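Reproducibility note. Readers wishing to regenerate the assembly model reported in the main text can use the exact inputs given here. Chain order matters: entities are listed in the order in which they were concatenated for prediction.
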Amino acid sequence: VSECEQLTGRPVYPGVAEGEALVSLPSIPGWGGLDAETGQVIDPGNPIHECSITGKVLVLGGGKGSTGWATLFQKARVLGNGPAAMLFPTMDSRSAAAAVVSKVPVVADIDVDLFAIIRTGDWVKVDGTNGVVTLLSQHE
Amino acid sequence: VDYRVSLTPEELVMLKGECGAAKQKAIEVIVRFADALGAESLCEITKAQIFVGAHHYLDVLDSDDIDEVISALYLTSDEVVSLDQVSVFTQSDATPLDPQQWREMDVPEDRFKKDCRYRDRLYGSGMAAGDSCASYLTGFVPLMGEHYVSTESHALLFMNSLWGACTNAGSIETSICAAFCGRTPYWGLHIKENRRGTHLVTVKTNPKSVHDWDLLGYAIGEELPANAIPVIVGTFERPRVEHLKSMFASMATSGTAELCHIVGMTPEAPTLEQAFAGQTPEAQITIDDAQIRAVRRTVSASGCDKLYFVSLGCPHYTLEQIQQVAEWLNGKKVHEDVVLRVWTAPGLKNSADRSGFTAMIEAAGGQLLTSTCPLVSETVPQVPAMAFDSMKQARYVGLGTAAKVFCGSVQECLESAVVGIWKGTDT
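Running the prediction on these inputs yields the following structure tokens for the assembly.
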């Protein structure tokens, strides 16, 4: 992967933001999987267990479990602990709802395997208005 | 508002604010939701089941102004507006507390009073007090092809699957907004072509008890990728409503399923071929006894600890389940150190009262409570060990506690409640 690689997808929620990627193909549970007070993922066994989503470009496999899934992100946003942007491989109704309540740039339906290209710690820019994801630098 | 979805003249009028500020905010959310999904249009819904009341998550906004909280957290609006009338028949999902027996469930009085204020506001907006996750047990019955919304993940999986009704999971916020504007994105499972099965699930086990079906649902949910529509086949005995509501509750806990066909049982799957609309499954999954045992070990603690809390009824119990518990407890006593709570919908509690079931449960030292559950009410006691007859309850409660959380059949839970020690079998 060359520096500044661009990926294109479908614009889901408008706006532009960048940040460090936090990547997990397994999603987090829909009820209690995120501590909104700290922004930390609480899901023992998840690759991003105890990582903070705050200010990150969150790359997840999709929504999961309870219809309270988006509410986790709503709470995090209200407390200022939400992600900077989000990326999803495909769109499902829980992820779309999370995008709407998070009010941060989101791109989905990206034609390549996000989880093979973006790794936790990479610096990523998300343009949710035009559906463009730019990999600015890779974590060593 | 910039948007891509195409709107009808009525929807445009609402979006312009000509039907009031609350409906305007509500349809704005639905329009953004539609664009996020990539929907081409909206569809009208006939009914809504919504998660409202003074739920603990609303405390995130430190405000006594009910309009401010509702605007921010229900309508996701920074501008404060007042709720007006819902646009379709709307009933409450599980609420934060039992409005009659809140003291018995150790809820502080200020919490009860706060919930009353929220309830009154929603009743004033035309909402009915369904007060149950299992809305379908209380007359909330969307039929084949009917568009509706629900904030309850297992209930929508149940109604989509068993009746061919149409909704997507979405979220608490998008469902509340749909209730107020009467619209939801015409996307996903609202469209017939998207409802064919994607994954063939061959069940090689023979689930009999409600707990067996609960475990099966959890195992299936774990195996499925996001957005899959499972098609279940197997030589198992025909399940009943109690089996399926538990299977759907656990399937929607470990996974994302919003529609599940069961060949020869659900209306869109009279045959295997029809379930897949003539197409080949994307993948095949087999569930065997070893997986079922592994799933129970994943969620339930092991050992034979002293128990302090036993909770039955997630999803809310049917009248038949309440009767079974009452008859089992008749003449027995729950151990003095154990709090035993059984959960159902208020309408069913009324029937249980008149049938004598409530008195039998109470005589044994148990409680029959309504409208909520330990998870939603956030009243899980701070004790070293507890037991649930629900994978959903055990899994989610387990995430937020250092206590030992056991999960087993209603029989295992009741026997344990009486002796005061977890008597479940280790798998």
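We highlight two features of this model. Chain B has a mean pLDDT of 96. The longest helix of chain B spans residues 21-37.
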